[in-house]
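Q: Got a minute? One more chain.
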Amino acid sequence: MIVTENIYVNGIIVLLSLTGLIKFSELMIDGAVAIAKKYKISPLIVGATVVAIGTSLAELAVNMVEITTTGHTDAVLGNILGSNFVNIGLGLGIAAIITKLRTHTMVIEKEIPLYFALTALLTSIAGDKLLTRREGIYLVLAFFAINYLIYQYSIRDKSKREEFKHEPHMEHDLSTKKTIYYLVGGLFGLVISARILVYSASSVATHFGVSKYIIGLTIVGVGTSFPEIMASIQAARKGYTDLVLGNVFGSNIFNICFGLGVPMLFKDLRVLPSALNDLYFLNFMGVIMFFMLLIEAKLVGNNKTLDRIGGIAIVLMYFGYMASKFILI
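A: Always. Here it is, folded:
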């Protein structure tokens, strides 16, 4: 494994490994989207499932490396919470600054409450400050149940066909051979990049005396969320707001159910008091999102709309909370 005692070299390695995570995640997405196009899967479902899962594989890869090699569990929950904070604070916030986000379809209106319920479930099982293997099974099963419900909702919702008829995110006409190469090569690259990232970030954390949980919440959490952020920004620039919402909340669902649930199958995870506080704050952000995106109330702006002011508020809320984490170290 590439690890040195030189803090500057490790810093460069961290940046290179984060770049690798982004590039290999993009390969995975291209391959997955090409398959979706071949089988004529709805672009909306691709955004909420295939793209969301593809951009979130980095979180799962990093956490599996952490569990199976270092044995340190604190960074696992920190990585997931940090990633979900980034997805909402930056992925959703910056997208809302670029264009007004308004829910158009029943699928998204159902997916968002399902994410809120999942976050509440995670908070409740973390209340005893221990996440067990049995609870990991519950989270993994919840992923399949949630996506089955989303699929059922999409069948009933016909409006998505008009909104995404040009399929801007499905323009990758790849051959079958190239599609397999992208999928397998992307997955392999993700694992290698994740392994290097974990070791290098751990060395940086040790040098500065920062806890593994904080590193997972910030550096690793943000780094592994870059694909989700870029996908959301690109979708916002093209005006496909449901794809933004589907990617953000779909990624967060995958992070909790698989990014956290699968590592829990291998080892029980302790929940630090600071992690529990972060879960409470994540639920608080969820309540705000609920009122902004789903409640028909003039008090929070246009009905079921997240506009530029709301986006700025979310971004500032994210940076404010992250700043408080370092102040309290």
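A: Residues 163-172, 297-301 have pLDDT under 50 and may be disordered.
Q: Perfect, thanks.
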